[in-house]
Description:
single chain; Rossmann fold; Helicase, Ruva Protein, domain 3; five-stranded parallel β-sheet; Sigma_54_int_dom_ATP-bd_2
Amino acid sequence: MTNLPIILVVDDEKQSQEALRRVLSDEFQVLTASTAEDAEAVLEQEMVHAILCDQRMPGTQGVDFLKTVRARWPDPVRMIISGYSDAEDIIAGVNEAGIYRYITKPWEPAELVETLRGALKLFQLQQESAQASLDLKVAPAMLEKVIAGKTGTLKRHHHFDGITHAPDSPLAEVIDMARRVSSFDISVLITGESGTGKELLARAIHYASPRGNKPFVVENCGALPDQLLESELFGCKKGAFTGAYEDRIGLFEQASGGTIFLDEIGETSPAFQVKLLRVLQEGEIRPLGARLTRKVDVRVIAATNRNLEDDVRDKHFRRDLFYRLAAFPVHLPPLRERPMDVPLLAERLLAETRKGFRRPNLNFAPETMALMAAYDWPGNVRELQNEIQRMVALADDALLGAGLISPRIRARACPAGRSIGDLGRPESLKDQVEALESRIIAEAMGRHHGNISRVADELGLSRVGLRAKLRRYGLEKGA
């Protein structure tokens, strides 16, 4: 029994004491007190892990008693139970009394036990923190060295120099712009097709910034409905919606002092956009179900594969929010616009795959690299990575031959009438012109998200003529 965590129940009603004892005694050693004076006597004698205190007691209120406890016995985790409409009194004293949780009557046994388990974890963390503080006083240089080492590793891993590209790549200019803006505490909007590395660039911006020693947190805004997205980002109070069983700290607060990366921001609803705009304007969030707002100090980097300017014009995205997010816009070019990067990326991805698949001796055959360089990679770096992993999984020997490449990629990279050997030879003027035309059309299709009318208008073509060229170059999307 003595090895169980000790819970002190402070309640003037014997019936309540016994009810709590029955529920808690399987996991905890339960001590009871009917008055504040009795509770103080227990605390003088026992090492208590948590205190469960009724708000209404003769002669004092639970919050006032716990203020005294915090001053004299700071270790136990303090909780209040109340069945009265005195939440405002409790909330007003939460910070001063250091109250961990406010529990309403009638309480649910399972929830109460789970809450106490959380309290004991907090107690353990407090003890570990106290020990860490002592260690810091004893050996500060050693601890600072460990922390600096971890931060330095992250900065090296996510540095701009870790973004693979050729010297003459269009990506070089993009990285230079991102490097310049990283030092300034303004919002960045990264645009580009899926798989181009928007999160990788966002991490590089964060770790190169003055906030680099603080958290970097990520949320995919297109993956959650509004209510859950708000809960994830802004936090929530217990009972704010079905399934909200406890208070939750949102990602904006978790990222305090650092950076939050909002991916797929273009997929959010107009209702959510209004709430996000307020956060950016006021620098404060309000958790779901809460009445009070909280200040946050967070840099926002957002990303989208949509054309937000078109969405603003079509009234699918708020203009004021767009300008808040796009204080500094950065566009990542797709892989088809930087074919010079393909060999370098392929080698880097192969090195990572060799390590992950424990096949250290694999290498590309020359014709395999030629095919990969000739393909336009509509899925960008992510598609290239998947293809390399597929080849490694299928390889029977150390050389990754062209036969391991997916048939659809071989057919598109090496059309009928040409051999793989032709890929490395100089093209005729006709081939070069057609390649340029194909690339121009593909880029326009990407900018306008496949809208035939807009692309035809931009390029000065008829819709019929554009469709013919799309079919000719294999760029049609079901049209």
